Amino acid sequence: MDRLAATRDEIDLNADVGESFGPWPMGADDDLIPLVSSVNVACGAHAGDPATILRTVALAISHGVVVGAHPGYPDLAGFGRRELDMTPADLRASLVVQIGAVQAAARLGGTTVRHVKPHGALYNRAARDERTATTIAEAVRDLDPGLVLVGLAESRSIAAGRAAGLAFSEEAFADRRYEADGSLRSRLRAGALLGPEDAAAQALAIARDRTVVAGDGSRLSVRADTICIHGDSPDAVAIAMAVRAALIGAGIRIASRPPDG
Amino acid sequence: MDRLAATRDEIDLNADVGESFGPWPMGADDDLIPLVSSVNVACGAHAGDPATILRTVALAISHGVVVGAHPGYPDLAGFGRRELDMTPADLRASLVVQIGAVQAAARLGGTTVRHVKPHGALYNRAARDERTATTIAEAVRDLDPGLVLVGLAESRSIAAGRAAGLAFSEEAFADRRYEADGSLRSRLRAGALLGPEDAAAQALAIARDRTVVAGDGSRLSVRADTICIHGDSPDAVAIAMAVRAALIGAGIRIASRPPDG
Amino acid sequence: MDRLAATRDEIDLNADVGESFGPWPMGADDDLIPLVSSVNVACGAHAGDPATILRTVALAISHGVVVGAHPGYPDLAGFGRRELDMTPADLRASLVVQIGAVQAAARLGGTTVRHVKPHGALYNRAARDERTATTIAEAVRDLDPGLVLVGLAESRSIAAGRAAGLAFSEEAFADRRYEADGSLRSRLRAGALLGPEDAAAQALAIARDRTVVAGDGSRLSVRADTICIHGDSPDAVAIAMAVRAALIGAGIRIASRPPDG
Amino acid sequence: MDRLAATRDEIDLNADVGESFGPWPMGADDDLIPLVSSVNVACGAHAGDPATILRTVALAISHGVVVGAHPGYPDLAGFGRRELDMTPADLRASLVVQIGAVQAAARLGGTTVRHVKPHGALYNRAARDERTATTIAEAVRDLDPGLVLVGLAESRSIAAGRAAGLAFSEEAFADRRYEADGSLRSRLRAGALLGPEDAAAQALAIARDRTVVAGDGSRLSVRADTICIHGDSPDAVAIAMAVRAALIGAGIRIASRPPDG
Fold it and tell me: Which pTM value belongs to this model?
């Protein structure tokens, strides 16, 4: 996280959505989707039943929000938050089928899936493990080379997307505390989650200054094309509103931008 | 089944494939796929995990066999053979996501899904229940109006496909005994399943004469664009070979034909 | 519902609990369990993952609340609210395994499962369909003849329990409007759900007078050993508190009573 | 594997059974069960639907074979052969519920579950990872301290069982090649699987001499109370028959023996 980066006047705000399952709601998609510029729709493996997928994609379309797929490990009970030791071939197949589910829902609604952002344990593993990152990037490219890969900024996930010839979008977080080494503070530690005011300040720093202030007060350089608002936070809507207000007040447009290069 | 129909010189042979799940194989796809002109690939709901879907579609492509989707009730343990009282909205969503899975696998292999044939209890219900038939036909059309709907010949399923403006393909069976009323004899009754020789004769009668001889010896008129070989029969490969030989010997081409109208 | 019945001084209050799944909470078990005298714990088929089963049983034990099993159709996405056309043998096996799950959790906590109350579509089907009712009653008896069967008051479910030689507990509802024919008003119709005050009055009428006032103002005779508080109502805790207050104020003890006969 | 051990005149033969699921058969339980002295019944998480659990337990009872539970990671598609990063609490709960399923089936058939043998990736992990081994041993003990824990001979799994105060049964393999370090040769390498004749010789060496000849010709000391016949081998029945003949011919009784100490 030491790359210099110019001030920018536009950023994407994204949210993970469609994570209800059957009778069990999750998140505040109805309120959150209108506040972001792109969404990542759960694909039925870690969350999201078919009716939820269709409803969520239709809601995004109705608000003009860009639709992406949010595949995870096939493990509903664990919500895709625990590692599952899949072979590359099984992971590839799972990704293709998961993304295909959201693509079908998008086609039904007259749009297309623009990007893919892995979920949970798969996102984290792709950020650090080259084989996982490459399996994901190649599955996405082989399915549709026009898809954008979203991953943790400056991680192996992004490197694999670049190597696969995919457009990519680097992600930073408004509502999570960064540590001095650039990692996110564990949710198990105090101060890991930021409230609306701090999240707004962090989003502005990311978008305008390309920096974040870490837990120890040090300032980190961070490169981000998109900022994530976690939909499963109880404050998600308040955070999204505060982040929007801060960005717009600083003259920064919130829009789902085309991929780098 | 009283429509007169002319002798024809071409017919589609189809098989339900990709019905393995995880460690559990089913059918003889490797041997059967080269013998048919189109396949219906299980979509992961009643059978078929993602790796199986990709492998099966790739196998069909390698043999130049036309790829279709074979969605069923989401009930692995029951193999889609027992009715599940889904709302039309839930059934529609399930179909879209299931077909989307096979579409993604097809896209990965450089082809497209040409048709949709419901499975098991869903196939049977669509044949007799207008609401189910209409839900299926409209889901297929709204996902892609170029898809062909495959259903039991002269059933509500076909009527709903026609009403939805879809091309359709009417199906008859080579390896099952028909009753005098045009229904299939229950698998629970003796004589329900035909061996290779009888199946070949029945296939030839369907393709050339547009008739079948029912269990009571009466001759029924039957209109069919495609003949199904059940892949889960122990004799499936022998039946397919006998049917092919009989048809080809009678000068009938085996090919996946374009839809009516 | 025409059986005469004497005023009583004790009634069971029950609630369906443990219906969370993985990351998705449902109900207010922590607050509701201390207010009832027995609970019906979801068994992992329509809801309830293993950790939830253990936690819920432990919570019931800690409050001295009687533990029962609450098996349903194996259909998470549908929450056991849609009929699944299982064979009697498959239904029997599913019930045995589901009840076994809660029995194991109870054994771990030093108690035993006292009763079985089917859930959702299975409860409703058992109330009207003799074959389903008999399959349930015989599975429960064959697993443990000391189990109590809970079912809709004066329904086929209870008749089958009696025929199987099981103790049984007839159930009425505090928080749902009855129709003049003794059925519950559909949740889809206005006025189906009662608020705390009306629920308290209805519970008192059931417990003390063995009557309910139906939607058309007529008074029905109703025999009940147990009154259900629906945990998935947003008002569940308020309803339970109001019902308790009304019953206790009228000198009626709330306790999980031994079965009839 | 360097412990001296006396010649013995009795050994247990065990098989993993009940690993069918819904429409998909696995193994040759009907033929294999009569040939062994104990079985490990899949519990519905990695394999085995409820009807299969009941049928398999009934089959074992009818042949006088001792019934055990065979819990695995909850991952049907992966057949419990890939690691799933469960928390100890979630693993404990999963085990309790899985064992409870087989206990209920056993109770229905008038017997009890005598032992627990973990499956696949869970078995392997427990053999080398103390935390996993302890979680398993304590879950088994807390559910029923009379249960016997079956694990890889001289592994952490056995050590944890001993520490938890459980009786245990150490397992060796007739039909798999051992390496010089006492590990099993990977199924991916040539010569990993032994045929009937070699398996019979190895079983006899294990039972009578407490040794095996490793792949490099060296002789290892091995301590085993039970010998596993893998039911998913195509040769399973032939292997079991050859092993029986060899053992019986050498005067060794095949019986499910009470636990050590």
Answer: 0.95
